[in-house]
Specification:
The chain has 234 residues and is of the alpha+beta class. It has helices spanning 4-19, 112-116, 136-141, 203-212, and strands spanning 71-74, 85-88, 93-97, 102-107, 109-110, 119-128, 166-172, 175-182, 192-193, 199-200, 218-221, 231-232.
């Protein structure tokens, strides 16, 4: 039975509840932004290259992980002849065999064509600042590239040409494989599966490989199981 005193007390409690902050549920946690890795200073050979027909800017500091730097390593294939190039698309690594003991390793970006071809080819020829002659199969998929077809003479060399400063052309049994190792990769492409192209290198590395390359040498492209080890870039 309510008395006047209990009624007043109950009213006061009700007022306190009404003024209390409603239960807002769990407070969301703040999600910290991912921390960008801090890389050591780049070697000097990734600086600006002068003396070329077209500008080759320096690779920006902090943009390239050390595992993709050009470096001399123990030769994983000591039985291969000097000049042999071995491409591992899944690892996004290219080796140039210097001797039984040593090889030069480069990080690369792998385009769709880089996963589509495998085997042993011959380094048929190399080109400085090559023209890009778009294959008919690519023009079928991207008609806007028709102006750069073989019949039309291809794209002029220089900035904007996706082959970059150097290109190595691979043939098999005298037939062009349409497989290329070429420059014009951006640092963020190395170690990534990119949308198109074959094997992309930084222009600095493509020039270095061009200078080392041996005409007629074997180029071995390892089979790609799946680009699962590579994160897609675009």
């Amino acid at each position: 039975m309510f008395t006047r005193r209990s009624f007043v007390a109950l009213g006061a409690m009700t007022g306190l509840v009404a003024c209390a902050r409603p239960n807002a549920g769990p407070v969301p946690r703040a999600i910290a932004a991912p921390v960008s890795p801090i890389y050591p200073p780049l070697p000097d050979f990734y600086g600006e290259i002068t003396g070329e027909p077209y500008p080759i800017p320096a690779i920006p500091e902090g943009s390239l992980a050390p595992e993709y730097w050009r470096q001399e390593v123990v030769n994983p294939w000591p039985n291969y002849a000097r000049g042999t190039i071995v491409v591992d698309p899944d690892a996004a690594i290219l080796h140039f065999v210097q001797s039984r003991e040593k090889a030069t390793r480069y990080g690369v970006g792998v385009g769709a064509a880089g996963f589509a071809w495998e085997g042993t080819a011959r380094l048929q020829f190399t080109r400085k600042w090559p023209r890009w002659k778009v294959p008919a199969s690519m023009i079928e998929r991207q008609p806007k590239l028709e102006p750069y077809s073989v019949a039309n003479g291809g794209m002029d060399p220089g900035p904007g040409n996706p082959l970059g400063a150097r290109a190595l052309y691979l043939f098999q049994n005298g037939v062009d494989t349409l497989y290329r190792i070429h420059g014009d990769a951006a640092p963020q492409e190395l170690g990534k599966a990119v949308s198109s192209g074959c094997i992309r290198m930084l222009n600095q590395d493509a020039i270095d490989l061009y200078d080392r390359s041996v005409h007629g040498a074997s180029v071995i492209v390892l089979p790609s199981m799946k680009p699962s080890g590579l994160s897609p870039l675009y």
